[in-house]
């Protein structure tokens, strides 16, 4: 009798039974036209997903990624608002949510309901009430730091309520020490260099770009947990979809007339280009 194989089979069976029991687990969404096999990662609607910033300075990128996921999950339905529960200290440290920035990601700012709470306990209390409302397009929960109240019990309670109401919820915070939680997926996000903007606009900015790592996926293929996988993605707000970020072109170092191409300086520049580094800037004009 293969004990390891039997345990694995039992885990798969329990995962399938749990998926059948939870109303929101049967409905999934993807990243869009990005990631493995064109968005092969499937995320459950009516579940709690965690997005961590790789570093404190990366929280704006993680915020944009959360909003994009919320729109993918169903927040693009203009009839339903997105509720954002935010701790006051997050606003003091990072600033207010910017209406033009929200619009550039594809969300009409008038659809956003912002709830501010003085501490993490109040954030979780407000989120626990909000997640019961099936009329929400999505719920974003943003405590600050590593509060003791954000534990396995709290995340399990939110997960069960999200499954009951069908409200896809997102827990947003800076990277924390590993701790047991009941989230369906866990992501770590950092900003990526965006591609060029529209060719007809010389100073146009490229689309928002992210480096996203999937740290944990409880609902993997066959119910097995999945770990690992990092993708460079950009967000298309018009299509409401992620797409794979094309590699940036390498910079070219021009060799002045009269200088042999095999000089030490040229060889150093070629070595830098092989490492993918930017070794020179284009001249204006």
Report on the structure:
This is Protein ImuA. It comes from Ancylobacter moscoviensis. It is a single chain. The protein has one domain (about 25-250, about 260-280): 3-Layer(aba) Sandwich (Rossmann fold), CATH 3.40.50.300. The protein is about 30% helix and about 20% strand. It has seven helices and twelve strands. It has helices at about 5-20, 60-75, 90-95, 100-105, 120-130, 150-165, 265-275, and strands spanning about 30, 30-35, 40-45, 50-55, 80-85, 110-115, 140, 170-175, 185-190, 210-215, 230-235, 240-245. It has a ten-stranded mixed sheet, sandwiched between helices. A two-stranded antiparallel sheet has the order 1-3. The N and C termini lie far apart (about 75 Å). The model is unreliable at about 15-25 and about 265-285 (pLDDT under 50).
What is the count of β-strands?
A: 12
- CATH topology type: Rossmann fold
Q: Using the alpha-carbon principal axes, give the shape.
A: globular
Please identify, by name, the CATH architecture.
3-Layer(aba) Sandwich
- Low-confidence runs (pLDDT<50, min 5 residues)? 14-26, 263-285
Overall helicity: 25-40%
The strands making up the biggest β-sheet line up spatially as 2-12-11-10-9-4-8-7-5-6
Q: Average pLDDT across residues?
A: 78
Protein name: Protein ImuA
InterPro entries: ImuA, P-loop_NTPase
